[in-house]
Amino acid sequence: MSMLPTKSLLSLLSIAVSLGVSVTATPPSSLELFTRMVPPKGRTMADIDRTRITAMMGGDKKSSFPVVDATVTYTANVGVGNPPTTYQLLIDTGSSNTWVGAGKPYHQTSTSKSTGQNVAVSYGSGNFSGREFIDEVTLSPELVIKSQSIGVANFSEGFEGVDGILGVGPTDLTNHTINNSSLLVPTVTDNLYKQGSIPIDLVSIAFAPTTVENDNTTVGLMTFGGTDSTRFIGDIEYVPITQTPVSSHFWGLNQSATYGSTTLFNNKAGIVDTGTTLVLLATEYFNAYANLTGGKMNDATGLLEINKSQYQNLQTLNFQIGNTVYPLSQNAQIWPRALNNLIGGQDGSIFLIVSDLGEAPGTGFDFVDGFAFLQRFYSVFDTTNKQIGLAFTPDTFALSN
Ligand SMILES: *[C@@H]1O[C@H](CO)[C@@H](O)[C@H](O)[C@H]1NC(C)=O
Ligand SMILES: *[C@@H]1O[C@H](CO)[C@@H](O)[C@H](O)[C@H]1NC(C)=O
Ligand SMILES: *[C@@H]1O[C@H](CO)[C@@H](O)[C@H](O)[C@H]1NC(C)=O
Ligand SMILES: *[C@@H]1O[C@H](CO)[C@@H](O)[C@H](O)[C@H]1NC(C)=O
Ligand SMILES: *[C@@H]1O[C@H](CO)[C@@H](O)[C@H](O)[C@H]1NC(C)=O
Ligand SMILES: *[C@@H]1O[C@H](CO)[C@@H](O)[C@H](O)[C@H]1NC(C)=O
Ligand SMILES: *[C@@H]1O[C@H](CO)[C@@H](O)[C@H](O)[C@H]1NC(C)=O
Ligand SMILES: *[C@@H]1O[C@H](CO)[C@@H](O)[C@H](O)[C@H]1NC(C)=O
Ligand SMILES: *[C@@H]1O[C@H](CO)[C@@H](O)[C@H](O)[C@H]1NC(C)=O
C-alpha cells in the first residue's frame, strides 16, 4: 500500500485515545529518558540544528561529528564503576562514543582500568578529549556491561548541565576517535549483544511530546535488544539504512514528502536523529513548504511564524518511508506554544517546526527527522539487520502543542 487509508487512520486514532493514559512500568531492558532544555543563547534553535548538520555532512572525515547543544535533548541516568556513580548522559543517535566527565568528575573504582589511549571527539560546536577507560556500565539492574570502553573527559566544551554522552549511533562513527587511529569502539548496545544480555543489537526509542521545561519527569523510554509494544500502535515498518552517502554513515533512510496534495520531494536520502530538535528540509523543499503554509521567517526564533487562520489551514505534512505514510498533523507541525519563551518567541505566537537545513538538495543529506518527528513516532535502530523501524504511537495525533 502506498497510502494509509483513512479508515485505518481512524482506527489508529481510536486505539490511540484508549491507550493515551495508560502508564506502564519500565520493562527490565529499558532505560528511562528525560528532557533537557537549554535556551539557545545568542543563536536561534534553528541555527544550532544547522551547525550540527553541517558538521555531520562533513561525513566520514576526521572530526566530523554533530553538535550536541541542541535546545531540546534527551538524557538518561547511567551508572559507571562498581559501586556505580550515576551520570546524566545525553542520548545521541548521531554519535557513537560514550563518555563521562563533562560535569561530574569520573570516579574510579576497582572496575576502572585506563587503556592508555587518548580519546578525542569534536561535535561541531563542542568537543571533548581525555583518556579511554574500560569500566562497568549500568543502564538498569538487568543491563550491566562488564567491560565497556568509555571516554573520560579531561577537557570538554559545550555540554552545559550534563556529564557526557551515551552514543548509540553506528559504531563506524568512532573511527579516528581513539589515538587518532582506525580503532573502533563498540557501543553499549554492541557490548550488551556480544555478552548475551540482549538477543539482537538494536535499540528502540519512545518519546512523548513534552511541553514542560525541565520538570524531571520521564518523557521517554529506550529499550535495548527489543521493542516495547505498550509504546507503539500497529506494526513497526522497517526500511534498510540508505546506501546514499553521507546519510549512509548515520541512521539514514530514504523518504518522500508531501504537503497536502503537493509533493515536496520524492525518494531522497536523509537521517533520523535524536540530537536535532527540529525537522529540517533542504533549502528548496523548505522554501516550497514555507510558501504553501504562508509562514514568515521570525528572526527572534529563526522559525516560520503563522497566524491562527493559517494554522487552521495547515495541511498534513506526510513523510512516506518504505510503504508507510507518517503524517505530521497540524499540531505536530508547530512548536509547543507553552515553550515559546524558551526559544525567544512571544506567548501566543505560532511557530512551525519545519526549518531550513541550509543546503541545496542533492547532497545525499536532504532532510533530518529530529525530535519534533520522533516525539510522534516510535523508532527502532537495528544494527544487526542494518535497518530502521518506525511505528505510530498514542501521541502521533496528540494535540499537545
Ligand atoms: C595510544 O597513544 C598513547 C600515548 O601516545 C600510547 O601510549 C599508546 O600505546 C597508544 N595506544 C595504541 C593502542 O596505539
Ligand atoms: C575544542 O574546543 C576548544 C575550545 O573551543 C578549541 O580550542 C579546540 O580547537 C577544539 N578542538 C577541536 C578538535 O575542535
Ligand atoms: C589533561 O589536561 C592536561 C592539561 O591540559 C594535560 O597536561 C594532560 O596531558 C591531559 N591528560 C590527558 C590524559 O589527556
Ligand atoms: C590525526 O592524524 C592525521 C593524519 O593521519 C593528522 O593530520 C592529524 O593532525 C592528527 N590529529 C591529531 C589530533 O593528532
Ligand atoms: C576508518 O578510517 C580509515 C581512514 O583513515 C578507513 O580506511 C577505514 O575504512 C575506516 N573504517 C571504517 C570502519 O569506517
Ligand atoms: C530537576 O532535577 C535537578 C537536578 O536533579 C534539580 O536541580 C531541579 O531542581 C529539578 N527540577 C524540578 C522542577 O524538580
Ligand atoms: C535514495 O535517495 C537517493 C537520493 O538522495 C537516491 O539516489 C537513491 O537511489 C535512493 N535509494 C533508493 C534505494 O531508492
Ligand atoms: C508563493 O510563491 C509564489 C511565486 O513563487 C508567490 O507569488 C506567492 O506569493 C508565494 N506565497 C506565499 C504565501 O509566500
Ligand atoms: C493571516 O495572515 C494572512 C497572510 O498574511 C492574512 O491574509 C490573514 O488576514 C491573516 N489572518 C489573521 C487572522 O490575522
Question: What keyword list fits this structure?
Answer:
mainly beta; Cathepsin D, subunit A, domain 1; 6 helices; single chain; 401 residues; six-stranded mixed barrel; 2 domains; binds 2-acetamido-2-deoxy-beta-D-glucopyranose; disordered N terminus
What's a concise summary of this model?
The chain has 401 residues and is mostly beta strands. It has six helices and 23 strands. It has a seven-stranded mixed β-sheet. Strands 2-3-8-4-7-6 form a six-stranded mixed beta barrel.
Describe this structure as you would to a colleague.
The chain is mainly beta and 401 residues long. It has 2 domains: 64-224, Acid Proteases (Cathepsin D, subunit A, domain 1, Beta Barrel), CATH 2.40.70.10; 237-392, Cathepsin D, subunit A, domain 1 (Beta Barrel), CATH 2.40.70. It has helices at 6-19, 45-57, 188-194, 283-293, 308-312, 371-374; strands spanning 30-37, 72-80, 85-92, 99-100, 113-122, 127-140, 143-157, 164-167, 202-207, 220-224, 233-240, 252-259, 262-272, 279-281, 296-298, 303-306, 317-321, 324-328, 350-351, 354-356, 367-369, 377-382, 387-392. The strands form 3 sheets. The protein has a 7-stranded mixed beta sheet with strand order 18-17-12-13-21-14-20. A hairpin with a 2-residue loop joins strand 12 and strand 13. The two termini are 30 Å apart. The structure holds 2-acetamido-2-deoxy-beta-D-glucopyranose (9 copies). Residues 294, 307-310 line the site of one 2-acetamido-2-deoxy-beta-D-glucopyranose.
